[in-house]
Specification:
single chain, mainly beta, four-stranded antiparallel sheet, 1 helix, 24 strands, globular
């Protein structure tokens, strides 16, 4: 092979490598945020792990063995609200702790399951799912210290509708959530006081797990259908034309990055010990697997954690 041919081959190889982004060449996540996830080690309880910007081995956020799931950092990143639950018995409560796991405080004490917490943008309130009002879930809100819990989605009759996955809008005025109020599980939006409930997606498929774009103009969510499986979709805040981020396999639990450039998500079926956390651009390009350590399994519930000095 002549020198010109060799150079041409090298250029093609370099171009192919540059266009093929995967877990072997991790892209930086962010300069101001890391990824916080939950995972298990050796069949133990769910723990919170920190994934740094450049990849590598995950680090425990809380002390070893400290059980925690459904993590969400406060807006300034100083505290973490999380869940301690037994889903075989469908019981559990919401807790809050300092960033290092210190000063852990139980916020809810109802005998029924409380989970899926989310902070208001001002850090003063927490919305969550609860079964304390009946056999189906409702969206509740309470003060950040656990006081004054209020049901935002009371049913006219027990077991009429099921609500889950609250996500507080960046403007602090609205909450997106999943609901069966329209017949099929869809994405809805309501005011933070529970008024003005409006359905935003309309299909016979299962729509859930909403995540707001940082500017509040769009909502990423998971749609599951017999034809397409489970994918991440995006719908405008006011409803309308949706777009699908198509990937092979099962994708769920989208989490929009605070700078608006990426979406973290889980790939793998629910309940699988092989589920992994990935990131991608909001158009689906440059997918990168972020969880690569064989010591940790069942990676899920990614959220973006602000770095602190």
């Amino acid at each position: 092979m002549g020198s010109a041919a060799r150079i041409g081959t090298m250029i093609l190889a370099l171009a192919a490598a540059a266009g093929c982004r995967d877990s072997t060449r991790p892209l930086p996540i962010s300069t101001t945020f890391d990824l916080l996830i939950e995972a298990r080690q050796s069949g133990g309880p769910p723990e919170l792990l920190l994934l740094g910007a450049e990849g590598g081995a995950p680090a425990r956020l809380f002390p070893a063995g400290m059980e925690a799931s459904d993590p969400v950092p406060s807006p300034n990143g100083s505290r973490i609200v999380y869940v301690v639950a037994d889903y075989t018995q469908w019981i559990g409560d919401i807790w809050v702790a300092d960033r290092d796991g210190g000063n852990a405080t139980r916020l809810t004490t109802a005998p029924e399951l409380d989970d899926q917490p989310t902070w208001s943008p001002d850090g003063q309130r927490i919305a969550f799912r609860s079964y304390r009002a009946g056999r189906d879930g409702d969206i509740w809100v309470m003060n950040a210290d656990g006081s004054n819990p209020v049901n935002l989605t009371p049913d006219p009759l027990p077991g009429v509708t099921d609500e889950s996955r609250p996500a507080w809008a960046p403007n602090g005025i609205e909450i997106a959530y999943a609901s069966t109020a329209g017949g099929d599980r869809a994405i809805w939006v309501m005011k933070a006081d529970g008024s003005g409930k409006v359905q935003r997606t309309f299909t016979e498929d299962l729509d859930t797990e909403p995540s707001w774009s940082p500017d509040g103009s769009e909502i990423a969510f998971r749609r599951s259908s017999p034809a397409l499986g489970s994918d991440i979709w995006i719908v405008p805040r006011t409803g309308g034309t949706e777009r699908r981020i198509a990937r092979a396999g099962e994708q769920r639990q989208p989490a929009w990055s605070p700078d608006g450039t990426m979406i973290a998500f889980v790939e793998g079926p629910p309940g699988s010990s092989q589920s992994q956390v990935w990131t991608m651009r909001t158009d689906g390009s440059q997918p990168v697997r972020r969880t690569t350590s064989p010591a940790w399994t069942d990676a899920m519930n990614p959220v973006w954690l602000p770095r602190v000095p």
